[in-house]
Amino acid sequence: MVELPDYTLVGEHGPVRLVDVFQGRRQLITYHHMWEVGAEWQCFGCTSYTAQFTRLEFLEPYDARYVIVAQAPTDELLAYRDRVGNRMEWYSTYDSPFGADVDAPRGGAFAADVFLRDGDTVYRTWHTTGRGSEQLTHTFELVDLLPYGRQEAWQDAPEGWPQDEGTSVRWLAPWEVAAGSAGYRAGACASSGPPHFASSSCSRAAPTV
Fold first, then answer.
1. What is the pLDDT of residue 64?
2. What angle do CA 13, 70, 21 make, to 5 degrees?
3. Half-sphere exposure of 11 (CA within 13 A, CB side)
4. Interatomic CA distance for residues 5 and 116, integer angstroms
5. Are 106 and 71 in contact (CB under 8 A)?
6. 201/14 Cα distance (integer angstroms)
7. Are 140 and 150 in contact (CB under 8 A)?
8. pLDDT at 195 over 80
9. Average per-residue pLDDT in the chain?
C-alpha cells in the first residue's frame, strides 16, 4: 500500500482532486483507457471492455466507485465517451502526473488500479495490466465456458475447430460499440486509427442507416 500525493484530474465539470473522485466513498477502482490523441477510434479492447459496465451502483453498498481515466485532452475524452455510449464516469489525466505515476503513462498500455481513502489521504493498494484485468470482466469468463473458447491462435484446439490467426479478431470494434449505443448513427469503418490498435475487425464495417 503506497501513499499518493494530491493529484488533480479533469472531469466533465472541470478540475477535481483525486480524493474527490471518490465522491465521499472510501474505495476507488480506476481503469486506464489506452489513448491515441487525435485518433478517430480508440483502442478496440478498452472500448469494448468498458462498454459492459452499465450498472455500477452495486458498488455503492461496498463504499466504492469505478471510473475510467485516460491520457487524453478532456474535450476529446468526453466526446469519445458520448460517441461510443459509455455510461461510466471519465476523467482526464492528460495534464497530470497521475497516470505516469501509477504505471499508465501517455502512449502506455491499459491498466487497472485500486485506491483506499483515509480522510484526505489516498493510498494505492492494487495494480494490474494485461491478462490481470480479465478478472474485472465477465466477457472472457463467459466465452471461456463455451466449447470453442476464445478461438484465438494461442489456444491448443483440436484439428478442425474454428481458430483465428490473431488474438483480437472477434472483439467488438469501437464503431460496433457505438452502433449499439442509443443516439448514435455509426459511420463506415475508419482507417485512420493508429496501427497498433489495428485488428481484422476493421473489415467489419459499421452498419449504415
1. 98
2. 45
3. 15
4. 13
5. yes
6. 35
7. yes
8. no
9. 85
Delimiting residues of CATH 3.40.30.10 domain(s) in the chain = 2-133
Alpha carbon 142 to its chain centroid, in Å, reads 19
Q: Does domain 2-133 have CATH number 3.40.50.620?
A: no
Residue by residue, DSSP assigns the chain as -EEE---EEEETTEEEEHHHHTTT-SEEEEEEE---TT-SS--HHHHHHHHT----GGGGGGTEEEEEEESS-HHHHHHHHHHHT--S-EEE-TTSTHHHHTT--TT---EEEEEEEETTEEEEEEEE-GGGGGGG-SHHHHHHTSTTTT--TTS-PPTTS---SSSSTTSPPHHHHHHTSTT----SPPS-S-GGG--GGGGSPPP--
Closest CA to 15 of 3, 6, 24: 6
Task: Tell me the pLDDT band of 205, cut-offs 50, 70 and 90.
Answer: low
Label residue 173 by pLDDT band (50, 70, 90).
Answer: confident
